[in-house]
Amino acid sequence: MYDFKYQKASSVADAAKVIGGDSEAKLVAGGMTLIPTLKQRLAKPTQLVDLGGIAELKGIKKDGNAIVIGAMTKHVDVANSPEVKSAIPALADLAAHIGDPAVRNRGTIGGSISNNDPAADYPSAVMALNATIVTNKRKIAADDFFKGMFETALGADEIVTAVSFPIPEKAAYMKFPNPASRYAIVGTFVAKTGGNVRVGVTGAGPVVFRWKDAEAALGKSWNADALKSLSVKADGLNSDIHASSEYRAHLVGVMARRAVAKAG
Q1: In terms of residue numbers, what domain contains 31?
Q2: N or C: the chain end with fewer CB closer than 10 Å?
């Protein structure tokens, strides 16, 4: 680990000022990705700005027909939240199966989507539920937020403060996890909201994406059988020691059908 300056931010404005004035400064949320990266000397930030002391970034509430989750809310709190379990049980179920207990008790939703790991679970829910990402500067639609591997639409001094999830009529998440890390080799989140169907896929490609052919088919018939004749092209999908691109393409369909069946 290289030397760096550490400070605990007292407010979002305070944190934004630091990272806006120093391009090599990094924010720390749960630290589930950043800390191991630092320990392996794969990153050399000048400063670490800890968001853990900012109370306004934590908490879960129902706001109209949406569930709003503060960026520094931990996975375990999303998984156990009565509000989330009642309104979007699929989201609580997703959070309950992120990593292991140590990760769920430290990792945060804001940190997860801002890091945008291509195999993270939350991005699929953000896409499928058509969530709105709230920052200290603006609101960003789900389709505009994830730009590429570990890349988002966030500006240099922009910080995610909350995520607003519309409450769906039906939704479910199914993933084929890596047995060691519990990251999604492929994870598929399906959601039907106000008659609109969206399908978010994580783990399969270099960035989370929507399976629009499946959305169209499920829009006509919300049934797992509606997806049987569909397939995802393997070109451009991830291929590694855990699964080939062809296998991942196959899993997208399998997980989608299971998710629809689970949603009911």
Answers
A1: 1-53
A2: C
